[in-house]
UniProtKB/TrEMBL annotation:
It comes from Arenibacter aquaticus. This is DUF2490 domain-containing protein. It holds the Pfam family DUF2490. InterPro entries: DUF2490.
């Protein structure tokens, strides 16, 4: 009986720990991405993400990003950008001053290639992260690599997959890994929607997230010329 009682205590302790960080919940990410063409070689990146521990509730993170893209050629481009991120690291619905505020500068390099019907994209990212924990501040650096594969099914529907690894440039090397799969719909020539699933793996925890994303890439050159 003592052994059984001890096992039950361990199980309840583990369950309580998992519930505290929300690992057992199916969360959701709602995302917008835009590439706004302003000239032959330059465009402006815009992005907003709202992330939740549960379905559209229990706030986890707000991410706002913008940047200037330089298009070297149709298959290569670079980005210099800035991000503002607010993160609630606790699973509590209404925590008391647990937010982390982050200002982030990032540099990216994109390479694209095609093999048969498969479209590949390689994204390399460096990030300089300026973190405000409230009682202290810190500066961290990390590198990211994402391999993305897109497969057109018809002119309207497509499949999208990617895997992205995060490498810390200080402290523990491994940061996280994101594995993603989605069904996409081309709504217009410059707008698409994706409904997908993300497996977000950290060293101590794994999170499952449903994602709804909209991508809108308007060509603003005609509008700018009129002005």
């Amino acid at each position: 009986m003592r052994k059984i009682f001890g096992i039950l205590i361990l199980i309840s302790t583990f369950t309580g720990t998992a519930q505290e960080n929300g690992e057992h919940k199916l969360g959701s990410w709602y995302m917008y991405f835009g590439t706004n063409k302003v000239s032959e070689k330059f465009s402006i990146h815009t992005e907003a993400q709202f992330r939740y521990y549960e379905q559209a509730k229990n706030f986890n993170q707000l991410l706002l990003r913008t940047g200037l893209n330089y298009h070297i050629n149709p298959n290569a481009s670079t980005t210099l950008g800035y991000g503002y991120i607010v993160t609630d690291g606790s699973f509590e619905e209404f925590p008391n001053e647990t937010h982390l505020y982050e200002h982030r500068i990032f540099e990216r390099f994109f390479l694209k290639n095609k093999v048969g019907q498969f479209n590949f994209e390689h994204r390399y990212t460096l990030e300089q992260r300026f973190l405000d924990f409230g009682d202290r501040k810190d500066t961290q650096h990390r590198a990211r690599y994402r391999l993305q594969l897109t497969l057109p099914l018809t002119n309207t529907f497509f499949l999208n997959f990617y895997d992205e690894v995060f490498i810390n440039l200080q402290g523990e090397t491994f940061g996280q890994n994101r594995l993603y799969a989605a069904l996409g719909v081309n709504v217009t020539e410059n707008m698409s929607l994706q409904l997908g699933y993300l497996k977000n793996h950290f060293s101590p925890a794994h999170y499952d997230r449903l994602q709804i994303g909209i991508t809108y890439n308007p060509d603003l050159r005609g509008m700018l010329k009129k002005k």
